[in-house]
Design brief:
Blueprint: E1 6-12, E2 21-25, E3 30-36, E4 49-55, E5 68-72, E6 75-81
Antiparallel strand pairs: 1-6, 2-3, 3-4, 5-6
Domain SHSP: 1-97
Pfam family, one: HSP20
Organism: Phtheirospermum japonicum
Length: 97
């Protein structure tokens, strides 16, 4: 969901704890979320694994260095704030004399 403040994202990852979640932003603006849960049974080779990626829209308008992530009860919640005009690198503010 996009608001005036930024983007709010929600990813369901049942069985995954916050200690095994990784969130990263690649150079081209792809947001990658990964996680691995515990094995359900001793015979299981692996627990549940999740990998999800999305292309962030208009990355020049987003502050990817200030992303906030929270993992609660198997739900990863992310907030990607928008940059203020004075913080943007694609906008040059010109002083008027």
């Amino acid at each position: 969901m996009e608001t005036d403040d930024g983007l709010y994202l929600r990813v369901d990852m049942p069985g995954v704890g916050k200690e095994s979640v990784k969130v990263l932003v690649e150079k081209e603006g792809t947001l990658v979320m990964e996680g691995e849960g515990k094995k359900d049974f001793k015979d299981d080779e692996f627990g549940p694994r999740y990998t999800n990626s999305i292309q962030l829209p208009q990355t020049a308008l987003l502050n990817t260095k200030a992303i906030k992530a929270e993992m609660v009860n198997g739900v990863l919640k992310l907030f990607v704030p928008k940059l203020k005009v004075e913080e943007r690198t694609d906008v040059l503010l010109v002083s008027v004399d």
